[in-house]
Amino acid sequence: MYTSIITIFLSAVFLTSNAQQVKVSTILVDSSFDNASLLKLEEATRLLENVFNSEAFAQSVLSEKFSVGHYNLSSEEILEIIRSGMDNYKNAEKDYSIDLRLTIYDSYKGGKEYGNTAMISRITSTHRCYILYNDVTCYASHLAHEYMHEVGFFDVKSWVGLRRTKINSVPYKIGRIVSGLINQANSCPYRSSTCKKE
Predict the structure, then answer these.
(1) d(Cα 114, Cα 9) in Å, to the nearest integer?
(2) The sheet that has 124-127: what strands, in order across it?
(3) Angle at Cα 172 formed by Cα 19 and Cα 132, nearest 5°?
(4) Full DSSP string of 98-151
(5) Which CATH class is domain 2-194?
(6) pLDDT tens for the chain, residues 1 to 198
(7) How far lies 142's CA from each of 48, 77, 103, 172, 185, in Å?
(8) Do the strands 97-105 and 23-29 form a parallel or antiparallel pair, or are they unpaired?
(9) Beta bridge partners of 163
(10) 19, 37, 57, 134: which one has the fewest Cβ atoms less than 10 Å from its Cβ?
């Protein structure tokens, strides 16, 4: 219900009318997805598609300064990569389809990681408990972050005050933009250690 209201709101208010719309598709979803995870995925991709096609998203990306791990691309070029479905910007054509390759894992890998994208296979793995025990908006922003890895952007550490962090990299900034646009009020606290495979 909550997601449907957000989706309708974004569709009615933010979607651009003149530009080619990008579609968010799942081209690889393996048997690790159970029914509950598939339902969450369907909601998350629909929500993400509406956000990516919104004028608010375009304006947010264009006003953002990308200066870490951005391959010297401008905000305009990064937006174009997303909005045209260039899944690997170095050699991909504009097909206006964001193709997600997804799998789920259950075993705890250590640290605070709840998802990652393998840069060679471009497959995103996410911990099941993160998907199931957080609001769908968390999964949508997570997919946005990981999609930027699929495109080819890395998390590069930079100095923020007295500590080095990855929060200024392109994937983190795009993920935060998506989170902000869907009014994600709740945090996404679940990590691998918070649930165990039955």
Answers:
(1) 29
(2) 23-29, 97-105, 124-127, 115-117
(3) 90
(4) EEEEEEEE-S--STT--EEE-TTT--EEEEHHHHHSS-HHHHHHHHHHHHHHHH
(5) alpha beta
(6) 434 434 433 444 444 445 689 999 998 889 999 999 999 999 999 999 999 999 999 999 999 998 888 888 999 999 999 999 988 766 678 899 999 999 998 876 555 678 899 988 889 999 888 899 888 999 999 999 999 999 989 887 665 655 655 678 899 999 999 999 987 666 777 655 556 544
(7) 10, 22, 13, 9, 15
(8) parallel
(9) 160
(10) 19
Sequence-distant (≥ 6) Cβ neighbours of residue 13 within 8 angstroms: none
The CA distance from 76 to 84, in Å, is 12
Closest CA to 13 of 142, 186, 154, 183: 183
Q: Where are the domains of the chain?
A: 2-194
Question: Which position has the token pair 């998802």?
Answer: 115
Residue at 35: amino acid letter: N
> Closest Cα partner for 156 from 145, 172, 174?
172
Provide the H-helix boundaries in the chain: 2-13, 35-52, 55-63, 75-83, 128-132, 136-151, 170-181
Taking CB atoms within 8 Å and a gap of at least 24, the contacts of 77-80 are: 78/170, 78/174
Q: Among 27, 19, 25, 67, which residue's Cα sits nearest to residue 44?
A: 25
Q: Is 70 helix (H, G, I), strand (E, B) or coil?
A: coil
